[in-house]
Prior knowledge:
The structure holds two protein chains of two kinds.
Chain A: E1 9-18, E2 21-31, E3 36-40, H1 47-54, E4 62-67, E5 70-71, H2 77-83, E6 85-87, H3 100-110, H4 121-127, H5 143-155, E7 161-165, H6 173-188, E8 192-196, H7 200-206, E9 209-214, E10 217-222, H8 224-227, H9 231-238
Parallel strand pairs in A: 3-8, 3-9, 6-7, 7-8
Antiparallel strand pairs in A: 1-2, 1-4, 4-5, 9-10
Helix pairs in contact in A: 3-5
Chain B: H1 5-24, H2 28-51, H3 59-76, H4 80-97, H5 106-124, H6 130-133, E1 139-140, H7 147-170, H8 172-182, H9 184-189, H10 194-220, E2 222-223, H11 225-228, H12 231-244, H13 250-266, H14 271-288, H15 295-298
Antiparallel strand pairs in B: 1-2
Amino acid sequence: MSHSGTNLLRVEQVVKRFGGFRALDGVSFHLDPGEVLGLVGPNGSGKTTCINVISGLYPPDGGGVTFEGQPIGGMPMHMLARRGINRTFQSPKPFLSLTVQENVEIAATYGHAADRAPPDLRALLASLQLDGLAGRAAGDLNSAQQKTLDLARALATAPRLLLVDELAAGLNPAELVRMSERLRALAADGMALLVVEHLMGFIDRVTDRVIVMNAGKEIFEGTLATATRDPEVIRVFLGGAHG
Amino acid sequence: MKLRVGDAVLAAAVTALMAVLPGVYSNELLLFNFVMFLTLSQGLNILYGFTGYLPFGYVGFFGAGAYGFAIAVMNYGAGPLPAMVVAAAAALILALVLMPLLRLSGAYFAIASLAAAQAVYQVISNPALEEITKGPYGVSLTGVFAPRLSYYVAVAIMAGTFALVVWLRNSRFGLALQAIREDTVSAGMAGVSVVRFRTVAWLLSALVAGLVGGVFAWHISVFYPDTAFDVGISIFATVFTLFGGATTLTGPLLGVAILYGVYNAIGITVPQYFQLIYGTLIVGLVMFLPNGLVSLLTRRGIRVP
């Protein structure tokens, strides 16, 4: 899908510092429509920071982020949402006192890209098994349901790029299978997904390729199967015992 | 917008009640004070109930409105209605000047807004500005004194404020404000322009207080900076709103009816018991019903206007 350097998302030499700590130290990758890229690495390697920079929560301190050929680094979140970038959160952040229906309604009203029709919210909630809970306050949902609602709210904006931050953690095996099928279906419809996850089985089922990060740097890019044989990746994950 | 009928009926009923009461009850100043607090607590509700910002210095906008009205009348010979426009403008200008406060949140915002209101008070009451504000010596606007007309203007402002709250409760804009209150990051990711929307809520809330301050100046016509910038006004509006339950129309109305009712029934005649009863009510509420009286119903799934 890549054509003459205009990928859907291009992250080039992005740096993000927190004080003297370089959480992202020159990270570069790209993503095309319909592609699912996994971001794996030990805790603190910069995976979530990467999502936070792309989604506008933090401005990058160096390098560039372009979406559909336009620079978006440092753009506010609501503008990015309207351009077609959305995300879920590691700890779900639904609007707790509002109902499930209201949660997705707000996103569909204000966040959907101007050039795309907002999705059918009833069908969206049904596809995520949230339709029976539409009238319930988000605060009454269990944590797996809140994570699903986070995803529903992101999808209500009809994004072209979805950033998924540890959505699988806390889901039971049946829910994991359903969620991975759901994400694959979104990619099959042309959505690009960037998936941060610790569960390798889930990454294996969902992603086309992975980037392995360590200490803010990319140390490997390729398929998960190749990554598991890469000596540097093994050293980072197993603390050098096999290095 | 899906209008819940209960909201509109309640707003209309309270407005009608306050409009007819002067015909059957002679203490018009007391009725005016009720109208004033019914409006101020809803004005505070717009900001606190919908966006989560609790302005302890809310009285600053009230005082700015009162002095905007007074200065227009005293120094420029304005009639009461143009002076009301000046009152509204004064509160809006102050709100624009204080917009950087919205970068703070929680207790920091609350305290900073209180400090800002005190700063405005210090400027207004400065004897060096006697030519303009009459400084600490107070203003007299007896030339425009019209208690009956100003009362009805106050009722109209109250009705407008109720309509605003009903609209917020029934519109997507109000829903977006509540999203900001719940989580600014998620609200941003849902496409809500957090800075712009909360600025609108801030200005609307200030506008209400400015208009109430203006009509207060008109109604009582003689007052001092201490009266117009009395922190007690902020405290009353805040306590009434929290006591009844924010984000609803009913909550602040109940808060005013019960707490301001108790205050007027026994606060002046037996202040020693009043403070005991008031304190007990508020402590009990904070401990057992932190979301206000209406939460007795809402937590059972009953929708309250």
